[in-house]
Design goal:
about 120 residues; 4-stranded antiparallel beta sheet; 7-stranded mixed beta sheet; mainly beta; about 65% strand; single chain
Length: about 120
Amino acid sequence: QVQLAESGGGLVQSGGSLRLSCAASGSIFTINEMGWYRQAPGKERELVATITSGGRTNYAESVKGRFTISRDNAKNTVYLQMNSLKPEDTAGYYCNADGLQRNGWGQISRFDHWGQGTQVTVSS
């Protein structure tokens, strides 16, 4: 089983910065895409940024130029550097990863998992 553990959320003033981390662990064979999504109260979960194993990135228009996603494949960890934060960035931020896992019998299967989420609150 693959687990995702997020860290780095918190309370910050408008214009400030935060860095989120998400480490994947468990019976990982390969990880394809990792990404960050967010969900504000009363709203649907939305994409923030994704990154492939090859380093190709994709960003929501609302965060382009302010957020940077990066990845350490050796550590199975994805990061989200968030600069120039705005009150509208306030949300629960969730890590997602998909790829292949291998069980104790050597059988390989796909996985697509979410972390438990970390809260980011930006005060005006």
